[in-house]
Design a protein that fits this description.
Length: 491
């Protein structure tokens, strides 16, 4: 007789009834082939005694198995495992192959090697370089939570709990029309805005709209790696142009357009990612004229418009676009905190309409309550107040960060102090490599991360992007100490 007593366990603190716990475990034994087809199960009285439960528990269990089709009851003979069950594979308990099922698929699927490497799991005591993210500790959580609770307490909240618009919540779209027209010099209407779950969704939607296999898109020789991966995922051809102190070199863009059909160009015009330089006024005008002349789309990713320390924000290309060539992408993720996946895609209405259809295939709609919360957050002025507050903090951190890097690490690193944003572009002394630095830094409990993603064009520029906004004063000092010890170990 099968040893039910040692094979079945009950969690008597669980809310799940004992008969269901028993049913599920017997089903698993049948699935695994441990209880083979045709096996006779013990009588209810015998099994109740073995498992030390009431007989009614066994009766209820057998009834459940009978209803589900796992067993059959034959009068005057007993209860048997169903004869006609298809056998997956009989295995002995403890067989190592059982463990491998979770790791290896039993079917083929398409794989793509062009995606970003997964982030390393954080280890206690380690410090991690980032490439410019906000400090979550400065997030106005109480203000956001208070607004969220107020919205949820309204009688009209039930109108937003079902399926809504694929374009995003109308209240947020209307709030963004006023906010972006006033702050970025745009001239758009609600019909020009699609709410997204951050800038990355906006880039993905743009790629879906503009690119098919072998279509050409222009990016900088150094470029935002996630954008590159998105375009490569569409099997597009990436054409790279130089980036200097004035941004992407538009003369090279023009030469490319003369030689081949260009479908789109991706640019981070305000603070180029990763180098932080700003696209000059002359090149902005030139780029818009080229887009009109050659009929390509400009995907403008304005990921950190709000962070400027030495000058007023420079208006985006979209504010000067008179010919409908620009798809403008932004978000509040960088400004407030990455966890709040609220972004926007702004384009001519026909483009927004098609983007909404595509978005609906992967993500039926956004989070209406969160979108209402941020609509209120914008209209109340809370977003502007938050920006003014963190601007002062991030400027102070930038100044300290750059000062200590110059003083303590000047023999190893070279960089320009950025005018805005949340990161610096750091060039390593050519006697070292980031691969070796990353290896030695681990001994100092410092994780450099995927340094190779900053050189998609394989130029060997020996530079990476290092964020400063997420570190407070003590953390900046500790980061510099660990980097300095790392370089000393290399010598």
């Amino acid at each position: 007789m099968f040893p039910f007593k040692t094979s079945i366990t009950f969690d008597r603190k669980s809310k799940r009834p004992l008969y269901l716990q028993l049913s599920n475990q017997i089903i698993e034994l049948i699935r695994d082939g441990v209880l083979a087809s045709g096996t006779k199960l013990p009588g209810s009285r015998i099994l109740a005694e073995q498992l030390e439960v009431h007989r009614k528990t066994i009766v209820a269990c057998y009834d459940e198995l009978l209803i589900q089709g796992w067993v059959v009851s034959i009068p005057k003979k007993g209860t048997f495992v169903q004869q006609n069950l298809p056998v997956q594979k009989e295995q002995i308990l403890g067989d190592p192959e059982i463990i491998q099922i979770e790791k290896k698929a039993g079917f083929s699927f398409y794989q793509n090697g062009e995606f970003a490497k997964p982030m390393a799991a954080h280890k206690e005591g380690f410090m991690y370089l980032d490439d410019g993210v906000s400090d979550g500790r400065l997030t106005p959580l109480e203000d956001i939570a208070r607004t969220y609770r107020r919205i949820c307490s309204r009688q009209t909240v039930f109108d937003h709990l079902s399926y809504g618009s694929r374009y995003g919540n109308n209240t947020l779209r209307e709030a963004l029309v006023q906010y972006l027209n006033a702050s970025r010099g745009l001239n758009v209407k609600k019909e020009n805005i699609l709410i997204t779950r951050g800038s990355q969704m906006g880039i993905w939607l743009s790629a879906q709209l503009l690119l098919q296999k072998n279509d050409s898109i222009i990016v900088g020789a150094t470029n935002y790696a996630s954008a590159d991966y998105t375009f490569l995922n569409r099997s597009a051809k990436i054409e790279r142009v130089s980036v200097d102190k004035d941004g992407i070199v538009t003369d090279e863009v023009e030469e490319l357009c003369k030689r081949k059909r260009i479908r789109a160009l991706y640019v981070t015009s305000h603070h180029h990612h990763p180098t932080t330089v700003t696209l000059s006024a002359q090149r902005r005008i030139h780029l818009l004229n080229l887009a009109k002349k050659f009929g390509f789309a400009i995907i403008e990713d304005d990921y950190d418009y709000d962070f400027n320390y030495n000058h007023a924000p420079i208006l985006p290309l979209a504010s000067h676009d008179a010919n409908g060539n620009v798809i403008y992408i932004g978000s509040v993720c960088k400004t407030v905190a990455p966890v709040f996946r609220i972004g926007y895609l702004i384009a001519p209405k026909e483009v927004v309409d098609q983007a909404a259809k595509i978005r609906g295939l992967a993500d039926r709609q956004g989070d209406a309550l969160l979108e209402l919360t941020f609509a209120d957050f914008i209209k109340s002025g809370d977003l502007d107040r938050h920006i003014r507050k963190v601007m002062k903090v991030y400027k102070a951190r930038r100044d300290l960060f750059c000062s200590l890097f110059k003083e303590e690490l000047g023999n190893y690193l070279d960089f320009e102090i950025p005018m805005g944003g949340m990161a610096i572009w750091v060039k390593l002394n050519t006697k070292y490599s980031w691969k070796e630095v990353a290896r030695v830094a681990k001994k100092q409990h410092l994780e450099i991360g995927d340094w190779s993603r900053y050189d998609g064009a394989k130029q060997g520029h020996n530079s990476i992007r290092i964020g400063f906004a997420s570190y407070n004063e003590e953390e900046v000092q500790e980061l510099v100490r660990r980097l300095k010890r790392t370089f000393e170990d290399l010598e």
